[in-house]
């Protein structure tokens, strides 16, 4: 395998573990991230000449640890001598971390980044960077904000973690309810980035991120087995992950849900997801956002053919979801369901109402282009396709939208 491909794969697989290990060892997110980045930079320089080491993750962790120690020694000569000396003595004596309910470093890092002392957007952004290994541009696209804005947000969040002395651990049982909402939010966004990567420089679907998000959500469920939203999020992830192998064609083009080979779906994951949805249906508690999203995906995956989809049930669930989460993105997805029930003209009117908040969201323009195409408004559809193509960073989605636009031009 090409060394460049190995480096990309190792970065995806090892970034969070290296950062988590260094955070536990040195107690500083900024030091951990900088040292991890330096270690990967050294790997880019050395591995093509020296060959890939037998244990890439161990090599990176050791190199990053040395880089962090070098930085601490430099800084100890300035104004933080006591703290750095304490860290160095821990490293020499053999640091023992405090006991935790779950012995998983990356989950501890998630809880650290999702601490309630941080604003929710800062929690999500910091976790995407530190745990997901996403770049600042990728995170900025997920939030629909400028890169400079996101960089400042992440920097402030790391500084606050240090200043507030936020511990690197899974919280005690009594503290979990106050923390779980932020944890679920970041795990969902990590999963979404894997489901449809926002950068053209990576794989269209990042199985490393979706798989890690599922794994961590399973661990959260072990901590909080009775929490409906934890169960709902796990069900949602499983039902989406089950379709992964059918979502990109052999030519590298996104395959929409109605065109996917349903025989290629993972029936084991679907059965598990459906069982979790049914489990929540027996509860007397009102469902939350993730439970409703899981139910929507259960309807989709229950249909043997796209034509068998119960769109009235999907629309009713979206009506429920809009009341829980009245965001423009949810309204956009509801409009797609309405198009199947009441036609593209009705749906287009709903979509056009979202133009202001979703002006820079590629899915808004892609949805609008499809509705305009179905209405025979080719010139308007072509313009909407152009805008969607310009805004998307996903190579597979770009290929799909480009083909649809080309077919429109031919027609």
TrEMBL record:
The keyword Signal does not apply. Residues 112-160 form the RNA polymerase sigma factor 70 region 4 type domain. Residues 75-99 are annotated as: Disordered. Pfam families: DUF6596 (PF20239), Sigma70_r2 (PF04542), Sigma70_r4_2 (PF08281). Residues 179-279 form the DUF6596 domain. GO terms for molecular function: DNA binding; sigma factor activity. InterPro entries: DUF6596, RNA_pol_sigma70_r2, RNA_pol_sigma70_r4_t2, RNA_pol_sigma_r2, RNA_pol_sigma_r3/r4-like, TPR-like_helical_dom_sf, WH-like_DNA-bd_sf. This is RNA polymerase sigma factor.
